[in-house]
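Crash report, auto-generated. Payload:
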Amino acid sequence: MSKLKENFNDKKMTAVIILSCLGIVSMLADIFSYKKALWYIVLAGVAGAIVANLNEKSNAIIYDMLLTDNYAIWFSTLILALVLLWFMVSKDQYESGVYNSSDNYALILFATVGALILTSFSDLTMMFLGIEILSIPLFILAGSNKKDVSSNEASLKYFLAGAFASGILLFGITFIYGSTGTFKLDKIADWANAAGSNLPALFYTGILLVMVGLAFKVSAAPFHFWTPDVYQGSPMFVTAFMATIVKGAAFAGFFRLFYTSFTSASGSWALILSILIAATILTGNIIAVYQSSVKRMLAYSSIAQAGYILLTVLLSNQEAKYALLLYIASYGVSTITAFTVLYHVEKIKGTDTFESFTSLSQTHPLLSVVMTIAMLSLAGIPPTIGFFAKFYLFSSVLKSNTSYLWLIMVSVAGSLVSVYYYFRVIIAMYGQHEPIISSEKKQIPAFYNVLLLLLVCVIIILGMMPDVLMSIDNL
Amino acid sequence: MEQIIFIILSLAAIISALVVIFSNNPVYSVLSLVITFFSIAGHFVLLNAQFLAIVNVIVYAGAIMVLFLFVIMLLNLNKSSEPSAPLIMKVASSVAGGLLFITLLGALRQSEASAGLSGGNIGSVESLGRTLFTNFLFPFEVSSVLFLSAMIGAVMLGKKNLKDS
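Recovered output after restart:
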């Protein structure tokens, strides 16, 4: 009992508490009619959570379940920053009157609590809970456009795929518990180190099942079949949330688990993971070429990007942490930017096909410039941050292990293919000149112009000086 | 004696699980799934996990399966209306499932029972409750966020869109 009390006085995890309370506040907005102020309250709350998170006592062990090491603090901060950005750009969708902002915001905030747990767990129970808290609000949000059949389909598909993946993940966790007798990440690592090369098959099977379950969540091939339909059917900013924050948090958890616990057993899973990565990069990039909807193209591109990010898990060393942080930051900011532009284009033109971008440079020069820079960043072309993230990732893989040269070649080939479909958008915007219909000239609110310019600045400035993220000590 | 009960329960579980898959009538599928759950609950009792056994019967066999039956009756699904999958899908899923089965079988065959996991009353309500409220207090509290979001979701999906009202 005294131990619990001691833990309570000393613990912090203020960000998790702030976000949970903020979720409840947002849930009650309808009843106490402060819905008009809700957006400001939520923004202030998330900003407060970022500050609280940066002041978090480092290396605190919370109830023996969470560990606030530097990795946890910085990945939580990154995820909270992306959430803050998300709330800013998604304002228009939730003010359009179709969606009830208070319910939607509450679910998003609860999902963020799950994301924070996923970056800081030190126990497999918490990892599972984190994944579930992250997923269940998203199952509902995917279907939040209730009149749209494809949104309903997205919700059901995501739910079935997610439940199946959770089952496999749990199966793997029981096997790991069965062989090691513990849920704690560091104790599993100690156990595996002590066992040396004498690891029982039960442990291997557990690792593989956990890997499959997590690969489902990060939509790596061949477990990606749900992704395109879910991403396309969901409302635009829910898709943006799934593609950036959910994916980023899932990767942070994936890396944390494999880096902390399974590095000494890497002989058993490295080959399988590298095949998974090659398959993911190839499928994602090649199928993306054939898409006619930009939203669906972005879904396949997010599959391909998942392949690149998985390289960090394969690497599992200190340098890979920086590569992961940089890549999630770069991919997150670029993807949110792309989805914001796509949202406005879809709103103006009514569709999200490549054709809807035709001669956008004449009617909306700013949107075109912003989309161009987002696409360049996703394709990994300097001077954007996407270039540096990819460069750093590939070079750190080669530096630590040259036997993965083939994998890097596959990745580079995949990136080359990706240039084709990212540039299709740019060419549509600048290449063709078609007579403009006056209804398509509608401009977007000034607030968004400022916001999009800000995002572009972030993409370019971070690309010029990535040292900002690299100078973190002891990640 | 225990061995005999174990074999009977296992046979019942496997046969009824096969009936779930192969039966053309969804009502038979659901009913044999109930039998599967009961036999698995029997296994839990044999392993001294009474609480799990009871929860398994109440939640799965009781609540969820009754819900299934209701849905089937309300939607009038008691005919086999499901289109059969193409052959390549059947082959692929059998191969994949078979490989998973072999992997699990191989892993379990080599394993030994861990010391410390087997004990007299490890599955009793008392020891489960004690573990839940001491070692696993924090996950227990955090799961409230999960249930709250599930509740909000149920309300949200049940409500009309703003523009409709």
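Post-recovery validation: Chain B has two domains: 1-78, 83-165.
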